[in-house]
Specification:
Elements: H1 2-13, E1 29-36, H2 51-82, E2 96-102, E3 107-114, E4 121-123, E5 149-150, H3 156-159, E6 166-168, E7 174-179, E8 185-196, E9 206-218, E10 229-232, H4 240-244, E11 251-255, E12 265-270, E13 281-284, E14 295-296, E15 298-303, E16 306-309, E17 317-319, E18 326-329, H5 330-344, E19 359-361, E20 372-376, E21 379-383, H6 385-388, E22 389-393, E23 396-399, E24 401-404, E25 411-412, E26 420-425, E27 430-435
Parallel strand pairs: 3-10, 4-9, 17-25, 18-24
Antiparallel strand pairs: 1-2, 1-12, 2-3, 2-8, 4-10, 5-8, 6-7, 7-8, 8-9, 11-12, 11-26, 13-27, 14-17, 15-16, 15-20, 19-23, 20-21, 22-23, 26-27
Length: 441
């Protein structure tokens, strides 16, 4: 069969502006669940772990994420300068997961939802344990789907991949090759198939969704077997958001709950993603060439009555749902934390658990820490103490804002975004924030 021959031929050859997706009767808006890695609703949930342990684990994943973003950005810039291969964002075992249903008949996959990735991919058959990572569900078998198609090298989606990330098989099929800075990778056939986001008809079916059918894959950071790939929500032309395009008005949003919540956070598309109501502020969305990340420009931070400024205007911080902590460029962070110490008037604790940087012990009668205002260009986002401080253990409170030790990387992480409706208007070029009780959305 042509498809099987392709897989074996492509396996050898790997060693050597919108896609054509046609959503069928896609509604103008729909909502799907985002499952936090550590929530009671997650397959990763460990009921024997304390809240402090869960927070520490999430923070450690955040360190890995920042390192991965730094490597990805560094290699991407090198690719622009030297035409070297471009890694995209490195997968870890994810902070938010989502279920997708691929093929006809459809099969359920649990994948990492990633606003810093473009291509969606899953593991495909044929693939043995020496070429794919273990997963606790059967591999997606394209020969069992009546709607699966391999895309040729001259197809528009294939040409939208960076030239260093695809080759042509002997049969003219498009073979993608995504490598990541932690030695993770996915190689396979750029394909199209039917996809939906719910086991019922509550969400739309996209009949020709472009994705990667991976037959050589490695997840360095996830040995659990519970996740099977990535759903790319980033700025690249092959991301889910870009493929839905006009059908959702180029808009998506999320409303993130604390991960201890017994409900799932929500990812919204189309009209439902419009942020409105009291307290809405907006800031320009900055997308940089050949990078899948969403950037904002942070002008300064206010704590109490005093402000420190970045002095930058060109998009200096990535807004990222996959990072737990918020990272600031080191010299700016030092100004910020000095201001926190001065304003809160607390003594820094000598015991600071990694990966936090500033902690103090709560004492009875201590005044409530002030709000922290992030001054983005055109909009001030007021963060409550729950966004910027976290109780670790035995009255030890740590800042969720930490210094970035990675060159060129600052990240606005998901703890800072909890209980905000965060909307991305790609065509309008803005990100909007509205303080919201996300348990009601």
């Amino acid at each position: 069969m042509h498809a099987l021959a392709f897989f074996f031929a492509a396996s050898c050859s790997l060693l050597a502006t919108l896609p054509f997706t046609e959503p069928s009767k896609t509604p103008s808006s729909f909502t799907i669940d985002l499952i936090h890695h550590d929530s009671p609703l997650s397959p990763f949930y460990n009921s024997s772990m304390t809240r402090s342990q869960l927070i520490r684990n999430a923070a450690m994943r955040s360190i890995s994420r920042a390192n991965q973003l730094s490597l990805s950005l560094s290699h991407s810039l090198n690719q622009l300068k030297e035409s070297s291969p471009e890694p995209i964002i490195i997968p870890n075992n994810g902070n938010y997961l989502m279920r997708i249903y691929i093929g006809t008949p459809s099969v359920e996959r649990l994948a990492i939802a990633d606003t810093g990735s473009d291509l969606t991919w899953v593991q495909c058959s044929p693939c043995d344990n020496t070429k794919c990572f273990a997963q606790n569900t059967p591999l997606y078998d394209p020969l069992n789907s009546s709607t699966f198609t391999l895309l040729p090298c001259d197809s528009q989606p294939c040409t939208q991949l960076p030239y260093s990330q695809y080759v042509c098989s002997d049969y003219g099929d498009c073979i993608y090759a995504y490598t990541y800075g932690d030695n993770s990778y996915s190689y396979g056939g750029l394909s199209s198939d039917s996809i939906r986001f719910d086991a019922t008809a509550a969400t739309p079916t996209i009949p020709k969704f472009v994705f990667g059918c991976g037959f050589q894959n490695k997840f360095t950071a996830d040995k659990s077997g519970k996740t099977t790939g990535i759903v790319g929500l980033g700025a690249g032309p092959l991301s889910l958001v870009s493929q839905l395009g006009d059908e959702i008005g180029h808009k998506f949003s999320y409303c993130l709950l604390p991960f201890s919540s017994n409900s799932n956070s929500k990812l919204k598309f189309g009209e439902a993603a419009i942020v409105q109501g009291n307290g809405v502020v907006s800031t320009p969305l900055i997308i940089k060439p050949d990078l899948p990340f969403y950037y904002l420009n942070l002008e300064g931070i206010t704590v109490g009555a005093k402000t420190v400024k970045t002095g930058q205007t060109d998009g200096n911080i990535i807004i990222d749902s996959g990072s737990t902590l918020t990272y600031l460029e080191e010299s700016f962070y030092n100004e910020f934390v000095s201001l926190v110490k001065e304003t809160v008037a607390v003594e820094e604790d000598q015991y600071i658990p990694y990966p936090f940087d500033f902690c103090f012990t709560y004492k009875e009668g201590m005044s409530t820490p002030p709000d922290v205002v992030f001054h983005f260009t055109g909009g001030d986002v007021v963060l409550k103490p729950m966004n910027t401080l976290v109780l670790i253990e035995d009255n030890l409170i740590c800042s969720t804002v930490v210094p970035s030790h990675f060159d060129g990387i600052a990240i606005f992480g998901n703890l800072g975004q909890i209980d905000f409706h965060v909307g991305y208007d790609i065509q309008g070029g803005k990100v909007s924030f509205a303080p919201t009780d996300c348990s009601l959305n």
